[in-house]
Amino acid sequence: EGSKLLTELLSDISTNIDVLTTSKSAHDCFFSPHHVTSSVCQDYFLFIGRLCRSSKGMRMLDKSGIFQVLLNLVVSTNHDCYVKLVVSSLDYTTDAMPRVILSKVLTASTVSSRLYATQFLLVLLRAKLPDFQKWGVELLVNQLYDQSKAVSLVAIAILEEATEEKVLCPSLTVNCHRGEGTMSVTRCH
């Protein structure tokens, strides 16, 4: 009975998030910018993030199609509140769809989205997320080439901080040998 109710809830959440990308105005939707910033609507995103922390939760989220709906939302929205909610709510400990969503936000068309996602990588670095050096550093190095100077400068600052973490230096060295990130690598040696 519990699984059935959860499946129905996830279906409803997915439908209401999807409406944001197809509606003429997000302000007319259940998850309107006003509702997600001033009510418990934002807790649905936290709930999705909590489900990401277990393999069973990930399977249910995959099955419900929520990840694809979230991906569509973050790449098509002009509202920062959705990008911030999605990026900061998901769990990135496993190599799964949340990392794909994060990488898409890092290359989104809106500078504010790319900047927020780049800054969020600092949160993940400081949280010492498992295997961050394998995938997070590569994302940061890619941000060095962003067309926005603000995004590039934030990436440089985060990579500088990453060099202080001895475990990240081999990752930075590998990136250096590909011709990227020389300024950050210099501090590792």
TrEMBL record:
Pfam families with a match to the protein in the record: RasGEF_N_2, RICTOR_M
Biological process terms in GO annotation: positive regulation of phosphatidylinositol 3-kinase/protein kinase B signal transduction; TORC2 signaling
Protein origin, superkingdom: Eukaryota
GO cellular component, one term: TORC2 complex
InterPro entries linked to this entry: Pianissimo_fam, Rictor_IV, RICTOR_M
Molecular functions (GO terms): protein serine/threonine kinase activator activity
Domain Rapamycin-insensitive companion of mTOR middle: from-to ranges: 1-127
Protein name: Rapamycin-insensitive companion of mTOR middle domain-containing protein
Organism for this UniProt entry: Timema poppense (Walking stick)
